[in-house]
Amino acid sequence: MICLGIESSCDETGVALIEADAQGVPRLRAQALYSQIDMHRAYGGVVPELASRDHIQRVLPLARQVMLDAQASLRDIDIVAYTQGPGLAGALLVGAGVACALGASLSRPMLGVHHLEGHLLSPFLSADPPAFPFVALLVSGGHTQLMRVDDVGSYALLGETIDDAAGEAFDKSAKLLDLGYPGGPALAELAASGDPLRFDLPRPMLRSGDLNFSFAGLKTAVMVTLRKLGVSPSEQDKADLAASTQAAIVDVLVRKSLTALQSTGLERLVVAGGVGANAMLRGRLNAEGVRRRFKVHYPELALCTDNGAMIALAAAMRWQRNLAGTRFDHDFNVRPRWPLGTA
After folding, report:
1. pLDDT tens-digit profile of 138-175?
2. Are residues 184 and 266 in the same domain?
3. Do 8 and 42 belong to one domain?
4. In the predicted model, what is the mean pLDDT of residues 8-20?
5. pLDDT at residue 180, rounded to an integer
6. Are residues 51 and 38 in the same domain?
7. Average of pLDDT values for 213-223?
């Protein structure tokens, strides 16, 4: 079974071709990705209208490139998948429109995929795929959630952010430090030369008694600390503050993940989404996994950001399980706000 996946939820246009064998083992045949970072950097963040227009320009050339790289023809495709939500409405409509038009022209079924489900299942394309059930830490953009995952489509929310997500805490703190856009990777890079113990920043909701998160207060603490440093903090001041900020975020993510594993009794943790590429987070979780004897799974680094491969994979796994959602009518809609538990 061969699935074409299209991702266009925000500022990356991704197209990929996934093939699953008779046993359901997926293989990435080819993928292509275009990032709009350079375009949005001038504005300090994503401009939705510009994002939508750029997706229109990129999606078809990327699709042609994928089919060429895979040495496949459109008639080889068995199912066409696209990101249905959550995301920017205009951007989602671009991918949905192309996918549904392609499905109609080929008389193939189509499937709208939940963006976070794509991230959650992306480690199944890694060299060390997980097995169900597991706890998932989803740290993607404006989302920070802990889920119990018993199978594809069987998700129970354990906890989520009540305000800013971990990715937003990285980005907003980076903006305060004048590190540019995108801020998260820039902050992590600067943190490598800083002292994470210099500034005593808060670990929000660390002892809340539940599995929810809150990072808005951390951003405020970073702002207050910067003001105390004066109008021209040194590069070492900024590096130390970046390191202290990263350490605070990672401490909360690790502690809550450990609590989720303990409360569910599960021994596997999946970490997915852009923040899942953070080296400090991976190092801490790997060390805790060895110490506490649980297994940690990640997507390949190239699949941590938004991409078409995770959308094609999620669709293929749903198709193989005969889950609801596959349609043949080729009408389409998008869901900019869409809780994962209802996917």
Report:
1. 998 889 999 999 999 999 999 999 999 999 999 999 99
2. yes
3. yes
4. 97
5. 86
6. yes
7. 96
